[in-house]
Each structure stands twice: as structure tokens, then as C-alpha cells.
Sequence to fold (160 residues):
Amino acid sequence: MAARPQLPGMRWFHWLRISSLRIGVVTGIYASCLFVAWLIVANYVTTLYPYAGVRNAVTGAVMLVLLAIPVLRFRRHPGRLFIAGLVAWTGLTITFMAVQLHFTLLSSRMGAFHLFTLGAVSYGFLAVLDWVFLICAGVRHQHMLQSGAVAAPVRRNQTQ
Fold:
């Protein structure tokens, strides 16, 4: 029997085997990087001031696509969807709190707790919506199986 070589410190990365945590962390890192880039471009690139509305709309759309990664990945597993979304949103909230130290007026619109609550409620709503959809689809599937089995005529082999 060959033993798997294990580097020192590899036990720390065992939590990456859980796909919902892995997707959540990666999505949170992507969203945090996009958020920081958005703030830097919005505050320091003066040539884009006339296009602020378009810049914000494009960045918001990209942010929605990034934050939809857990929803699309775990569309058949509502619990994992919620965990991945909550981990991603927690990373974004921690980045928001860190960036608030430099951009002091950032908290005048929405605080970190409100941002976290917005994300948790949004992902919770999507997870519940997915769960209800899966229940309805399962009930419909069972109904179709039962009604198809009763209504279908039995064919017997006829030799002529």
C-alpha cells in the first residue's frame, strides 16, 4: 500500500473539500476584488466622471453575475446554495468593513450590518424559492408517474 504524501500544513486546507464553502470563498474573493476595483475607479479615475451612471450599471451587472455563481452551481441543493451565498456575502461584508476605514463616507449610505443582512436575506429567499420549486417539480413528477402508470394500457405480446 502506498501512502499519500502529505505536506506539512495541508490539514488546514481540508475544508476546501466541501464544495459549498469552496465556491463561497472563491465567489467572495471575486466579489471583493470587483468591489475594491469599483471604488478605486469611481474615486480616482477622473476621466470617467461623465460616465458614472454607465460605469455603475456595468459594474452592478458584473457584480450580479458574480454573485449568481452559487445560485447557478447549487440550483438543486438549496442548503448548499444558502451556505455558499452566505460565505460569499460574508467575505464581501468584511471587505466593505475594511474599505470603510479609508472611504469614510461609504457608511453614510448603508452600514456593514445592513449590507450583510441584505445579502443573507437575498440568498435565503433564493434558497427557499429553489426549495419550493424542487418540491413542486418532485410532486409533479410523481403525479405524472402515477397517472401514466394507471392510464397506460398494458400491451401483451401478440403472435400472428
